[in-house]
Design a protein that fits this description.
By secondary structure, the chain is α+β, with helices and mostly antiparallel strands. The chain contains five helices and eleven strands, in the order βαββαβββαβββααββ.
């Protein structure tokens, strides 16, 4: 990741302050191949930069957006969620996505939009973020797929992968999976879900937590795949995690196989006027 962590975007004072402004939420998908990550950077093409330029073209004012997660260069998204204040009322909230798409490049799409309740924030209101990593057993090149999978050249055992993945569940110090460039001292995380499953020709790793460290998911994938290949059991990975020794981790999986799949918010954080209360829900509605 090009950011310090994967759990949200940089904020600026007053980005969600305003009197009479609507809070608009937009689900966004993008192909990360042509971007220097999500977060805005000077003189680099970024997802946030393109979205903010699109909003400025649409509403003739600079609008700073908050996001549920920041993705690194080459990482994709199906279920990114952004929020921003909008005083302009010329476009109904549900039509903002359609209008915004006319101002966005082809590798970014605004999927849906809606008015959010006062106080909603794409980053701080999120309960859980879900990432998926796509592995492909073949080494044969495929121009239509190669930007979205890591070709590992073999068929790994999903049963063995899942036994190893089970070691991640719960509250742990995940220093072993921290990038050497990650300067944060907060390396305790709670992993809610971690599992591998087949999807077509691919093996997919899905992991869910409130937040992740920089490069953490990709380090997890590379490490578990190496341990499965070596025939290591769960005790080996548990010992590695307990040691906190980053030199024991496997290679960091390439960015191109990683997808920000969805983000989950509590129901009351999603209730705009007139909506009926319910249980926690995902804002992405991605078919599983």
């Amino acid at each position: 990741m090009s950011d310090a962590c994967m759990d949200g975007s940089a904020t600026v004072a007053g980005e969600h302050d305003g009197v009479g402004a609507r809070v608009i939420g937009v689900r966004v998908a993008y192909d990360g191949s042509g971007f220097s990550g999500y977060q805005i950077q000077n003189d680099r093409r970024t997802v946030q930069g393109e979205i903010e330029k699109g909003l400025e073209r649409l509403f003739s004012e600079h609008i700073r957006v908050a996001s549920a997660g920041r993705t690194d260069s080459g990482v994709h998204a199906r279920g990114q969620f952004i929020s921003f204040l909008l005083e302009n009322r010329s476009i109904p909230a549900a039509k903002v996505a359609v209008a915004l798409n006319t101002r966005l490049p082809n590798d970014i799409s605004a999927i849906t939009s809606e008015e959010m309740p006062e106080g909603f924030h794409a980053r701080y209101s999120a309960l859980q973020r879900v990432y998926r990593y796509y592995l492909h057993p073949s080494t044969a090149r495929d121009p239509l797929r190669d930007r979205y999978v890591w070709r590992v050249g073999r068929v790994p055992s999903i049963a063995k992968l899942n036994r190893l993945a089970s070691c991640l569940i719960g509250y742990h110090d995940f220093t072993i999976f921290a990038s050497a460039r990650d300067t944060t001292d907060r390396r305790l995380r709670t992993i809610d879900h971690a599992a591998f499953f087949p999807e077509g020709e691919c093996v997919v790793f899905e992991i869910a937590a409130r937040s992740f460290m920089w490069h953490m998911v990709r380090s997890v994938v590379g490490t578990i795949l190496a341990l499965e290949k070596a025939g290591a059991d769960e005790s080996v990975l548990k010992g590695m995690i307990a040691s906190g020794d980053r030199s024991l981790a496997g290679e960091t999986a390439p960015a191109k196989g990683l997808v920000f799949h969805r983000v989950i918010y509590q129901a009351e954080n999603m209730l705009a006027p007139g909506r009926v209360p319910g249980v926690a829900r995902s804002v992405t509605h991605v078919a599983e």
